[in-house]
UniProtKB/TrEMBL annotation:
UniProt family annotation: Belongs to the BZW family.
Biased composition (Polar residues): 1-15
UniProt protein name: Basic leucine zipper and W2 domains 1
Coiled-coil positions: none
SUPFAM superfamilies according to UniProt: ARM repeat (SSF48371)
Transmembrane regions: none
UniProt keyword terms in alphabetical order: Activator, Transcription, Transcription regulation, Translation regulation
Gene Ontology annotations of biological process type: regulation of translational initiation
Region (Disordered): 1-30
Entry superkingdom: Eukaryota
Domain W2 span(s) in chain numbering: 225-392
GO cellular component: cytoplasm; membrane
Length: 398
């Protein structure tokens, strides 16, 4: 056996490739501008096309890394050289803020593109959000600009919700919440704020926790109330649909009771919804002398439904107020009020005590003199019947 040491193998002449993920991409704002400008020029003056191009390019181009370059392009048309002039060696784009028409509508459109790009750092986003809130408070821009926050990618990455926190804090530092709410309602944003979160987190509970933790309890309460209103509208429509289909009353009652439990709706709120549904489910005669007879016939049919949700005195009083309001708002029903109340009394929907309470102190101002005068004889009859009943009870006791 040879004592000569065995020579170790060598790897001379071989070259290893660097993994792609280990390669550091060269910072090249000129190439970035060339790509963006080319896409903007191809999109022309169509803002929707520009928006789609910028959104699609975000997946390929590093907006965060080239945020300053992107901002220069969208505002001035291209990269700015020292001194604030456009770099002469680069082709600019005509699609930029400085080349746009000088009117509010165009500026709002550009604001949507400029304010909500993912390229900005957290600090830059915060500053933009605060500025946007101030502009909203001053009425410089419309609250419709918030629709840009509902972009799927921004929502998914949490940019929309965090931006909204800073924006609303800034807005509310300048205006009270009633003013903010009015601006949101004006452009239909009051029912869309849950869209700041992805579908799996789009609930009142999650919204409330997020914005309560951020110190925006008024906004949380507003959204909760709006959702509740939306739920009630949907419920009323469903009850109306069930009536128009001719579903059995026992099925409508069962469905409604289930919705009360599921949505934590009070009986007082529900009787108001049912009354509205019942009165909306028929086309009323325009002649005053005929509408009363039509109403009595219709309400007699649905009195079991009304009775199912007037188990409390407060619910009965609520129903009486709804009837008064409806008869006042619909002039053909002005003379029908007393007949409707008497019908519901005979059907055990309404009882003596709530009727007397309504008559003596709890009525609305709407049509007060007309309706009280209509009810005077019936109320006297109720009082006498009540006194006779008490007298009989005393005699029985003796």
């Amino acid at each position: 056996m040879s004592n000569q040491k065995q020579q170790k193998p060598t790897l001379t002449g071989q070259r290893f490739k660097t993994r792609k993920r280990d390669e550091k991409e060269r910072f090249d704002p000129s190439q970035f501008q060339e790509s963006i400008v080319q896409g903007l020029n191809q999109s022309g003056t169509d803002l929707d096309a520009v928006g789609k191009f910028l959104d699609a390019s975000g997946a390929k181009l590093d907006y965060r890394r080239y945020a300053e370059t992107l901002f220069d392009i969208l505002v001035a048309g291209g990269m700015l050289a020292p001194g604030g002039t456009l770099a002469e060696d680069m082709t600019p784009t005509e699609f930029c803020l400085f080349k746009a028409q000088e009117d509010i509508e165009t500026m709002q459109a550009y604001a949507q593109l400029l304010l909500f790009l993912k390229g900005f750092s957290e600090s830059e986003c915060n500053k933009l959000a605060m500025l946007t809130g101030i502009l909203l408070a001053n009425g410089t821009i419309s609250a419709s600009i918030l629709s840009s926050l509902f972009n799927e990618n921004l929502v998914k990455e949490g940019v929309s919700a965090s931006f909204a926190v800073k924006l609303f804090k800034s807005w509310l530092s300048e205006r009270d919440f009633n003013s903010v709410a009015a601006s949101l309602r004006k452009v239909g944003m009051d029912n869309r704020l849950l869209e700041l979160f992805p579908a799996n987190k789009r609930s009142c509970e999650h919204f409330s926790k997020y914005f309560n933790d951020a110190g925006l309890q008024e906004l949380s309460g507003f959204v909760k109330n709006q959702q509740s209103i939306g739920t009630r509208k949907e419920l009323q429509k469903e009850i109306e649909d069930q009536m128009s289909r001719g579903d059995p009353l026992k099925d409508i009652i069962a469905y409604t009771r289930e919705e009360i439990k599921k949505n934590n709706i009070s009986e007082q709120t529900m009787i108001g919804l049912i009354w509205a549904s019942v009165m909306s489910s028929v086309e009323w005669n325009k002649k005053e002398e005929l509408v009363t007879e039509q109403a009595i016939k219709h309400l007699k049919q649905y009195s079991p439904l009304l009775k199912a949700f007037t188990s409390q005195g407060l619910s009965e009083l609520t129903l009486l107020l709804k009837i008064q309001e409806y008869c006042y708002d619909n002039i053909h029903f002005m003379k029908a009020f007393q007949k409707i109340v008497v019908l519901l009394y005979k059907a055990d929907v309404l009882s003596e005590e709530p009727i007397l309470k309504w008559y003596n102190e709890a009525h609305l101002a709407k049509g007060k003199s007309v309706f009280l005068d209509q009810m005077k004889a019936f109320v006297e009859w109720l009082k006498n019947a009540e006194e006779e009943s008490e007298s009989e009870e005393e005699e029985d006791a003796d």
